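Handout, section 4.2: multi-component inputs.
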Amino acid sequence: MSPLFEVDHLQKAFGGLNVTRDVSLSLGKGDRVALIGPNGAGKTTFVNLVTGHLRPDSGQVLMGGEDISRFNPMRRVRAGLVRSFQVTRLFAEMTPEEHVALAILQRQGKSGRMAGSFQAMPDVMRETYETLETLNLTALGRVPVSEIAYGQQRLLEIALALALRPKVLLLDEPAAGVPHSDTFLIENALAQLPADLAVLMIEHDMDLVFRFAKRVIVLAAGEIIFDGLPGDATNDARVREAYLGGYANGSAA
Amino acid sequence: MSAEASVTAMPAQNRGWQRDLIGIAVILVAAIAGYFLFPNNLALLTRMIAIMLLVLSLDLVTGYCGVATLGHAALFGSGAYAAGIAAAHFGITEPITMIAIGAVGGALAGLISGIVILRGHGLAQLVLSIAIIHLFHEAANKASEYTGGSDGLSGISPDPVLGVFEFDLWGRTAYVFGIVLLLLVFILLRILVRSPFGMLCRGIRQDPVRVSAMGASVKLTLIKMYVISGLVAGVGGAFNAVSTQVVGLDSLSFTNSAEALVMLVLGGVGSLYGALIGTIAFVWIEDLVSAANPFHWLTIVGALLIAVVLFAPKGLYGTAATLLERYRRGGK
Ligand SMILES: Nc1ncnc2c1ncn2[C@@H]1O[C@H](COP(=O)(O)OP(=O)(O)O)[C@@H](O)[C@H]1O
Ligand SMILES: [Mg+2]
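Output:
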């Protein structure tokens, strides 16, 4: 049987810079994978490539054996491939309630309805507030996003992804910008995800990575240099080198 | 928890509708006041109604979807010509049928404009919209056999409305007919903009990438809105043809498009109320100033626009609404 999600020999260069070099990986039902790597390793680019926000130079993306490489972002979401954004992308003038309701309506095929209001749909309202509650956002349900703190906007970003009920979820640094005291909300939300959902999370907080992931993939300079158990990653010579190199550069800058 | 949420949901929803009921009441009162205060100026008020429909239609694509266009009169003019040609050449003079034909004409023009304009983004979008209005204008000019070319299309003599209310010299029937159309369209549009579809459009204006990451089609949604916008502008154009009994090339002009945008910005985008207020303010000032001093009319419009954009960037309605909101919050 073909894996739930498969990436095959993905390549991408910006000008002369090879940002994604021959990346292949696959995820199965229920996988909890962390994708780590120094800044600029190409993690976000990888997510952009597989979700259709960027076009790869070559390589394929498959969902359940079906080649979705030619799908636009919208069709990939409908195929069950959902992402969150490293830098929050929300509707500044809309409320968390409207955001989540819109995602639910979209999933249910009701977002094209030209009359009525989601607030008059009890099932949509119930699910909206269940989702907001998971991320402790209920009290902010009616506040425009432009007036809520960035950390909470990050949580809403995750709520949106959850509301789409994906098969494969790609989270790009969900905890970046969330106050440390609130990261438990993200962990709680992750813990409540359906067991058969495959999750790939990009994350820098190693504590979070070790608690969450059963498998770690390390990307450095566009290349996968490690794919295995979390415990083995820290002892891997190439991983150490990549990180030490990264830190050395970082402190020199 | 969820039970609590749905309980707290009801008042907010009712408050929205309350505001709309107040809005509709205000329009009605203003309409009646206009009828009695300016009995000799009903033609001007009637023209205002036609333009309001155009500006409302523009608000749908510009205010709600964020599409920049200087070619929106293409939708209005198409509706006007569709209704006018139906009456003058095919003897379809029943006014409500004429309005319906105008709506279809406007919707078709909306579909064509949408498909062309939405291929571009930002500046390219603006240029495409200008190209569209010039093409429509030229097409109407060339098809003079049907449109009367630069002489305009005349010979439109609509039947009495519902077979009872004849179009009179004072323009009373036209005015009341227009108010009824406007109210009907306005109510339908308020329902539309608060629907899931309306919310999706607002989302597209704020971040199309986020909308596609939700699995919605940005393009298809915008095209649908363009067609609806065409229906509304088409009704406006057809109503103009019915009430003035002529259709001129100016209804399909760049100037007409640009003025509609000015009115929308003046009133405030993205609320529908702003579209109405902006039209009244603009047409009224135009009438006042051009009578007093025809040479400086454009100067005054220019100065007014600069003042609004600099000091009240949300437009007359948007600024008033913000002030009111601040006052209410402060008052609590
Ligand atoms: N649109 C782009 N055009 C050119 N270079 C880009 C673009 N996006 C990313 N890059 C470059 O690709 C590299 C990888 O970036 P990114 O995928 O954001 O890294 P990460 O998410 O791992 O920190 C960086 O060197 C970045 O400057
Ligand atoms: Mg990144």
